Amino acid sequence: MNCAENMFSMRLSALSENESFARSAVAAFCLPLDPTLEEINDIKTAVSEAVTNCVVHAYNGAKDKYIDMTVHIDARLNKVSISVKDEGCGIPDVKKALEPFFTTKADEERSGMGFTIMRTFTDCLQVKSEEGKGTEVSMTKFIRGASDACARRNAGIDRACEER
Description:
By secondary structure, the chain is of the alpha+beta class. The chain has helices at 18-29, 37-58, 94-97, 114-121, 145-154; strands spanning 5-13, 66-74, 79-86, 124-130, 134-142.
């Protein structure tokens, strides 16, 4: 890894009070890319949704579970890659879960907008899940708008991704 790249990993107890720490830690780690306030807020919102999904859906509020997060930054591409992983119940139908307003917790007044929010505030969202084994949510955010988008396009890197 050279000075243009950096990464960190952390393991958090799957407690709702750790959501604010996770989003703040990721936001602080991204500061060397000189993001705008809007970009920082996008990252914080997406991380918040991913961590909340682990606490509420993967572990159903169990206190003795963990969330693993890994964050990579690549300053050459102004790119942040975030992975949020649990070892919870898994998602039986990822395609269905990615639909706006889909929720397994309607009785708890959940809106079913978590993945939609993550997709809205990042450039790429991938969800891998296996029932009984857990879920990994991978998000990518490119920092600094149109001029960098042109540079990425010219380098053969586009913002599209495949959902899994």
